[in-house]
Structures are given as structure tokens and as C-alpha cells.
């Protein structure tokens, strides 16, 4: 019997759920937790307030660094680096004003003719003669020869 996509997906989700619930196999030791840094190691890290765009923050990415300290270092690095902080990309939809016509590039209102043409294409109706003339380039006309 062939298995459909949804039945396969359901079976695999169930297997994953059971694998999480089952204890580790006897020959498999659980992964050790990363050891937390000592107070001296945490004190040796640069102070968050002193981080600049040129500061190397890899020390904050080590295993055992408290998550709150790591997040604070990343946040500070993001804020002080103008390359990251001031980046404006086309995918940042929150930089546009979606509440006014023309506030988003490429999102200008459609004309009535454009809406009607799209509706005709979606419904499979033939284009009227005026639209058909605009869509199809004119065929070259044969030149008339002078028979005189």
C-alpha cells in the first residue's frame, strides 16, 4: 500500500513524539550540559557599556555564558554598529507607510482598466477589441508596388 503525504507526515510526527518521551538508550550517555562560567571568567568579559562596533564579541558566544549576558552583548553590538543599525533593505516592510496611497514602492492604486483586464483574464473571457489591439503588436503590412 502506498503511503500518502499526510499519513507519512502523521506517522513521522508520532515517531518523533515517542522518541522524545522515551529515555536514552543504555549505551548512549546524555549530552553534558555546558559548564557555567566562573565569577572570575564572567568578570573578565568586557563590560557591555564599553562595546563598540570594532569590539570582538566572540567571548560572549562561548558555551557557559549566561543567556542574558549574551543577549545584552548582541543587542549592544547591533545598536553601536552603524552598518547594521542603519541598514535599510527592501524587505523591511515596517519602513513603509502602508496607510497612505503611494507609501509603499510598487504598490500604487490600479486603474479601472487594469482591474477590468485582470478580471477578464481570471475569468477566461476574451479581451475586447480595444484591449486586444493593445496587447498584440500590429502585423507588418506588405508594401504596395507601383505597377505603372
Short structural description:
With 148 residues, the chain is mostly helical. It has six helices and no strands.
State the helix count. 6
Distance between the termini: 82 Å
Low-confidence stretches: none
What is the average of the pLDDT values? 80
| Category from helices, strands and their pairing | mainly alpha
Shape: flat
Write up this protein.
This protein has a domain at 94-132. The chain contains 6 helices and no strands. The chain has helices at residues 5-21, 39-44, 67-80, 82-85, 112-123, 129-135. The longest helix has 17 residues, at 5-21. It is flat. The N and C termini lie far apart (82 Å).
List keywords for this structure.
flat, 148 residues, mainly alpha, 6 helices
How is this fold's topology laid out?
Layout: H1 5-21, H2 39-44, H3 67-80, H4 82-85, H5 112-123, H6 129-135
Amino acid at each position: 500500500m502506498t503511503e500518502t503525504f499526510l499519513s507519512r507526515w502523521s506517522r513521522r510526527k508520532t515517531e518523533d513524539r515517542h522518541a522524545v518521551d522515551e529515555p536514552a538508550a543504555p549505551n548512549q550517555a546524555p549530552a553534558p550540559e555546558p559548564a557555567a562560567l566562573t565569577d572570575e571568567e564572567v568578570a573578565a568579559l568586557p563590560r557591555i557599556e564599553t562595546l563598540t562596533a570594532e569590539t570582538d564579541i566572540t567571548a560572549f558566544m562561548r558555551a557557559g555564558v549566561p543567556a542574558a549576558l549574551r543577549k545584552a552583548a548582541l543587542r549592544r553590538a547591533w545598536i553601536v554598529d552603524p552598518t547594521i543599525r542603519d541598514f535599510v533593505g527592501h524587505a523591511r516592510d515596517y519602513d513603509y507607510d502602508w496607510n497612505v496611497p503611494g507609501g509603499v514602492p510598487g504598490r500604487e492604486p490600479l486603474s479601472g482598466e487594469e482591474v477590468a483586464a485582470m478580471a477578464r483574464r481570471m475569468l477566461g473571457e476574451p479581451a475586447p477589441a480595444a484591449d486586444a489591439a493593445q496587447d498584440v503588436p500590429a502585423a507588418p503590412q506588405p508594401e504596395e508596388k507601383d505597377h505603372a
